[in-house]
Each structure stands twice: as structure tokens, then as C-alpha cells.
Amino acid sequence: MTDYEMVIGLEVHCELSTESKIFCSCSTKFGGAPNTHVCEVCSGMPGTLPTLNRQVVEYAVKAGLALNCEITRKNKFDRKNYFYPDLPKAYQISQLYFPICRNGHVDIKTENGTKSIGIHEIHMEEDAGKLVHDPLSGKTMVDFNRCGVPLIEIVSEPDFRSADEVIKYLEKLRDTLQYLGVSDCKMQEGSMRADVNLSVRPRGQKEFGTRTEMKNIASLKAIARAIDYEYERQVDAIEAGEKIVQETRRWDDEKEYTYAMRSKEDAQDYKYFPDPDLMPIEISEEYIRQIREALPELADAKRDRYVNELGLPEYDADIITGSTTLVKVFETSCSITGAPKDCSNWVMTDLLKLCNDNHISPEDITFRHESLGEIIKMVNDGKINRKTGRDVFAKVFTDNVDPAKYVEENGLAQVSDLSAIEPVIREVLANNEKAVSEYLAGSEKNFQFLTGQSMRSLKGKADPQAVRATLQKLLDEMR
Amino acid sequence: MTNEEILRLSASELASVIREGSVSSEEAARAYIEAIKAEDGKYNSYVTVCDDAIEEAKRIDEGIRSGEIDSPLAGVPVAVKDNICTKGILTSCGSRMLSNFIPPYDATVVRKLKEAGMVILGKTNMDEFAMGSTTETSFYGPTVNPHGTGKVPGGSSGGSAACMAAGLAPLSLGSDTGGSIRQPASFCGVTGLKPTYGTVSRYGLVAFASSLDQIGPIGKNAEDCALLFNIISGVDDRDQSSTESDKVDLDKIKNFDVSGKKIGIPEEYFGEGIDEDVRARVSEAVRFFEERGATVEKFKMPIIDYAIPTYYIIACAEACSNLSRYDGVKYGFRPEGVDNLMDLYIRSRSEGFGMEVKRRIMLGNFVLSSGYYDAYYNKALQAKALIKKAFDEAFEKYDVVMGPVAPTTALNMGESLSDPLKMYLGDICTVLINIVGLPAISIPCGNDSNNMPVGLQIIGRHYDEETILGFAASYQRG
């Protein structure tokens, strides 16, 4: 049987996280009551005109620079004409002839080392509204809230050869755009959506096979499953002597199969032409330079720095840099404590465990980011012990209490004052004569027992080192 | 002052008697509203008459008295073409499609009229979606030319020109995409200014062809047009194609001296198809300026041959996209008893649009469709560049270019509906100006043998409204 290779190109739509829409001043907030973030412009009233939100250009340029693209100096917007009830003007303002970014690339890590995925172009456009089907009335309603939310569409070259590469790329895009602060890239809210163009060809063949397109798949896992299914389907079809039809297919994630939606023959003619309502946007060298200089440190550079300069294990650095929130908590903790290794341990064990126990993702934590660093500092300074620190953090995590205040109000400060420890230990020794005499006779393990008894009497607040030292001193005196 | 006396005043005269206090804005509005109610049955120049204009005028009178409103046209009524959005007032575009459309917002020009203390009398009739040269394609029936029964008023701003000619408004606003202010002004014997593209905000003007559409004033004379132009012009944040421009200096217009000025006459404007009477009247008008010291020179502009196809390709391409939003989903006409989405689209658009609009939508879709874009739309853009170059060269030599507004005077009603190509060819003298975005004015320059008005067109450099208004004013002073 022939060995087939899959060839995939991606079109990824990301909603930009600007406060207002691309061509009017309506809010871009997700989840408002239907048609509450709507004005005469974004609902396509007769006579209205678009006014470009300059921040959209800035965000698109940021994304382009971070993805190693060339920036188009003279930008234009074009109209993409088609009828659908969620598109009130019956055309989408997009960029066909002069997209804002071109010829970029993204490097991903695969099993066979680093691979560079080409970015064909990035263009700016407006999102459409949403149709809501009301099963009670049998009617279909339109919600224009999302109309005019700014999008960038990132079009890759057909460089992917496996589902794994696709997922790595999408994760990398998501991390990068989140670091830049230009998109929150939440697939479940639709602020990041991927269309997958897939074809197969006998390994070694140069020409591409006929491709199908799978639109708007809702999660990374579903994308991986859809790719594997569609690859098998195409291979089976070819092996059975069938021709692959160029068409759009939909992935049904419950039934785990794709089905045809429309073929190329029904493909629409979008009749693109330059939008006469919007003037060309000139982007200067100086503008690009300013944006380039203000770019934040991106995930790759950060991870390298964590490993090489801060001495974090690669695994820890990967996990932390995989979330902008973890990065914020970690870096805040480091600047409070000056102890990166300790901070990474706390993040990797305590913070992630608490997230897990509370079923939330790190992005959704609610406590003050400084709190963790303050707790670590108290532990490192010997003000509280590790166990108390963990308990305080649990309280911080759920109730966002102030750590120092909480420690004080609940009397959790560690007792490291020897004059306070010594009388308690003397009493423990007096109450455990048998264990003491056995120890003095040579039973070393009784030292552990006496330490435990002492800690218990000190209600766990004592510095374990101080307890051990005092105990040793007192026992030595009894020899 | 009697109503008859009020109606005879020019807008600037009316403004000054209101300022002096001898006539109130309320009296002026009442005189016009009563006249419209009594007379407009004959002309059908208004689609909507604003009954609350009188109440509005009372408020403006208070504002004028308190000094709150202080503008050169404070208290003066004005008629507005029915494709310019007026909050709370039907804006139909002369179409069944928008026969129920009440805009929730004011066009920028309407806001400016209100801020200047002007009173909106009503909305004027027009060719459906401004597509036409006769005002016969309106859903609300044709407008009649007050100068001759059975004659069209021109179009598409036929209502705005006819109401001026009939004395049913002291000033009006029209829109001009390929001649829609100048040609009806010419047919109705009034003065119409198409300003430089971008000087007046298009925000709230229901789009026909976005790169060509321009709002402008129609008045009894050049001075009135200048006053209204100064009120409506200016850069607008809501229209990115709008630009800042200087206000016109009224004193300069009133004292404009044509001596030493250079006038260029494109020979092609007097080529075949032009009416003998039109040729004669326009030539006499040009001689008027020559006698007062201007130099006149004929020149060749062969690119004019490409004006009509270039214009209709660009205009229809933009129109088919601009008019796609009328789909029966959000506003406007929606038929009863539709079965599904496709049915809703097809029936809304088939029943909501008239013949001429459908013709242009189809033309536009054709020239933009895949495989034809380069052959038509891109070619038209290239022709546009050549036309611009021809005018740039002309304006290196001349201060203004002159010619007729249209090859004929007002046509008989019904004549051009059966022959759209003939109607399109009538736009030969006006469409070029929109393609290049130049300012041009149409002024009456006598009548033909049937006593129908002839129009002289004066074309100026970009942003040089002052010069063409000056020429017009000096002609009108005599």
C-alpha cells in the first residue's frame, strides 16, 4: 500500500482585544445581552460610514512583527461581498489586495527538532454577528454584538505534515498573541478559530493533492481528531479509486466524522473591490520601529532566560511560560523574594495543585499576584514554616486574604525564639522519660519521636531546625 | 410682510429680515408649509412635509432672540433630498425598499443645518436611490418640472430643484453622483453647486456610489449656495473621505472680477447631439465673460469619449455593493409570507427595488465578477487616472472650464424611461466632474425656443469653490 503524507495549511482568525470595535465606538465585550453593543454603524444602517480604529492597525503590526513578517507600508481595505443575515452590510470589510503583514514564520518544536512554519499573510477584517436559533418559536434571530469586532486572519503556508505540528503551531500562536496582549485567544469563546486545509499525496510526490477545508473547529483536541479522521478518509477514498472533491467539510466532534457542506462549484464569487469609504493607511518606518522597540519579551526568549539565567528546570520553564498569568505571578514573586528557584517550586507545586483542586485554569485566578511572593518571603525569612505557608496560600487562593495580616491575626508566626522553645522541650523530655533513656542508651530513632512530640507541643509553629538544635543540646546535657 | 413677499425673497434676504426681526422664522416656515400644501400637488416635489417645522421655527426664533443661534442663515427653511438621513423622519430614497425607513440618527449635514438654526421643511422626491436623470423612477411617482407641464425636472435631485423653481423652498440640499444636482438645477432654471469631493461629509447620505457621491446646495442664486455650502462643509470624524477646506469668502464672491481670468472650453462639449438652443445660450453666456475681460480658449479633451463607460462601471460597481444591505432582514421593505431565507432575499429585492436600480445592480455585479474585474473595473480606474490628468493639464492653463450642463433642455416625461442608454448619454457633460472630484456649478443662462431653461456649467479646480461661485455671481449680477 502506498505511504501517504498529509499536507496542511491553516487559516486562523483571532479577535483582537481592543476596547472598541474596528469601525465604530461600540464595546467589543463578549457575552452582552443580544444587540446591546450595537450602533447605526455596526448594524449597517443606510448612510453610515466606517471610521477605522487605529489600535487595530497597531495590534496587527505587533502580531506581524512577533511572527517575523514584513509590514505592508500602504494598506487598503477591500469589500468582500456576500449575503448572510449575520452580515448587516452584506459585505465584510477585509484586506485582499494589500494585507498588512506578509512572509513571516513561526518556529515550532517537534520530535525531529525545530521546524519553521511559513506565514503567508496576516490581514485585518471585521467579525460578523451571530444567528441564534430559538427552538421554542422556531425562529432564527440575529445578534449583532459581535459585528465589527476586529479580527486578524493569519494564513499559514501549507507547511504542516502532522496533527501534532498543527497543535504545536496553534499553541505557539496563542502564547505569542497573549504575550503581546493583542488577543485573548480563547477557543471556547470563539476568539480564536481555525480553518484547516488538508490534502494528501504519496510520500515523495511534489504536487499537492486536492484539498478540503474544515471550518471553525472548536478546540485543539477536536482539531487533532478532525485532522486524523480527514487524513484517513482521503487516503481510503484514493485507495478505493475515488477522486477527492475540493469542498468545505464540517467536523462533528460527537460523532467524530466530517461531512461535506459545499463544494467548489457552489463557491461564492466575493466580488472583492477596494472599499471607497476607507482611505489608504500609510505605515511609516518610524511607527514600525516604535512598535518593535515596545514589543514585550515573548515566550521563547523568556523560557531561555528562565533556564539559562534563573536556573529553572526546562520542564518548569515550559509550564510557566505557557501561561501569561503564571508568568506574572512567577515574576512578581521573584522580584519580591529574589529566589527564582523557590518561586518556581511554589508555582509548579502549590499554585498548580490549587488550580487543579478548584477546577480553574491559571488564567482565572483571583488573588492579588503579590500574595504568593509575600508568603514565600515569610517562609524564607523563617517567619512562618513551609507548612503554615502552604495553608496561608490556600486561604489566599480562595479568599484573596492579605498573607501578613492573616498570619498575624491567626497567630501563625513561627516561634524561633529559643527562650520560648526551650521550656516546652524540657517539659516534653520530662513527660517522655522512657524514650529519653532509650535514646541515651543508643536508640537513635527516638530522636525523631522526641522531635515530633516537641513540634506538636509547639503547635507546628516552631522552626524545625531550632527545635532539633535545642533538643540535641538538652539531650547532650543529660548524658 | 405677506406670504407672497416672503416666498419671493432669496435665502440671504430672508435671513437678513429674520435677523432684523421684521419677519420671524415661524412666519417664514408657515408661509412655505402653506404654499407646499397648496401647490405641491401639481409638482410632487416633496415626499414628506414636516408639519412640525413651524414648532421648530418657534424654538429657533427664541434662540435667535437670546443670541444662542447666530449663523448667516438662522431661521431660514430648507428642503432636504430624501436620501439624506433625518432622525425620526422618513428617509425613503424614493424607493419602496426604504418606504418605511425612519433613521435613528441625523446625517452630519442635517446636524449642521440644525446647529445653524435652519428649519427642515420636508424631504424631496428623487429618482430611486439617486439612479436616474428624470425623477421618474421614484416609488412616490414622478416630479413635474414647474417650467413646463409634461417636462421632467431632471434628476436625480429633481424634487430639490423643482421645489426651488416652484417657490416651495428658499434653499435645498441635493446630492450629485454624476450630475444629480447640476442637471436638475439646469432643467428647472435654478443654481446648483456640486462641491469638491470630500468637502461635505457623506455621513448619513444613503450611499449610491461612495467615491462619487457629494451633497451640495441648490438655491436661487450663487450667493445663497455659497452661504449654505459654508454651513455644510468641513471635515467630519465620521467620514474618512472628508477633508478640511476653507470657507468661501462671501465678499470676494460679491465683488468677483472676471477680467484677466482664463476660461477653457472643451470642444467635445459642443459636439454632436447637442441642442442648437443649448449651444447658443451657453455660447452667449461665455461671451458675457469675454466682454468683461476674461479670455476664452477652446481646447481638445478627447478622453471625454470614455466618460460614460468609466462612470457607469465605477458607479454601478460601488452601487451593487452599497445596495446589498437591503435584504429584508433588518429594516426596509419585507414581503409577507416568505418561506425561507433565500425566498426572503429574492422577494425583498425583487419587489423592493425598481427597474433602473435592478439594472445598475446587475451591471455592477457583472463588472466586479471573477474574471471580469480586470477587464472592466480596473480599466475604469485607469481611465479615471487619464481623465484626472486631462483636467490637471487644463487647469494649468485655465482658471475655470465651461460648457453646458446637459446636451438638451428638460425632456418630455416618459421619453427616456424606454431608452436608458439615451438617458445615460445625457450625463456626458456632468459625470466627468464626479470621476475627478472637481467642484462645478450649474446656473441658468436663458431659455430655449420652448421657454425651457438652459444651464451653464462652470467647473473649477479642487477646493476652489470660490472662483466658480464668483463667476456665477458676476453673471447673475449682470
CATH superfamily annotation of chain B: Amidase signature (AS) domain
Q: Determine Rg of chain A (CA atoms, Å).
A: 30 Å
In order across it, which strands form the biggest sheet of chain A? 2-6-7-10-1-11-12-13-14
β-strand percent of chain B reads: 5-15%
Biggest interface, chains and residue tallies:
A-B, 28 and 43 residues
Broad structural category of chain A = alpha+beta
CATH architecture descriptor name of chain B: Alpha-Beta Complex
The backbone outline of chain A, from C-alpha atoms, is elongated
Report the β-strand fraction of chain A as a percent range. Answer: 15-25%
- Topology of chain B as a string of helices (H) and strands (E): HHHEHEHEHEHEEHHEHEHHHHEHHEEH
Instruction: Classify the secondary structure makeup of chain B into a structural class.
Output: alpha/beta
Rg from Cα of chain B: 21 Å
Poorly predicted runs of chain B are none
The number of domains of chain B is 1
Low-confidence blocks of residues of chain A: none
Describe the structure.
The complex is a heterodimer of chains A (479) and B (478). Chain A folds into 3 domains: 4-286, no CATH class; 297-409, no CATH class; 418-478, Arc Repressor Mutant, subunit A, CATH 1.10.10. Chain A is 40% helix and 21% strand. Chain A is built from 15 helices and 16 strands. In chain A, the strands form 4 sheets. Chain A has a 9-stranded mixed beta sheet with strand order 2-6-7-10-1-11-12-13-14. The mean pLDDT of chain A is 91. Chain B is an alpha/beta fold and 478 residues long. Chain B has a single domain, classed as Alpha-Beta Complex (Amidase signature (AS) enzymes). Helix content of chain B is 41%, strand content 12%. Chain B is built from 17 helices and 11 strands. Chain B is globular, with a radius of gyration of 21 Å. The model of chain B has no long low-confidence stretch (mean pLDDT 96). Classes of the chains: A alpha+beta (479), B alpha/beta (478).
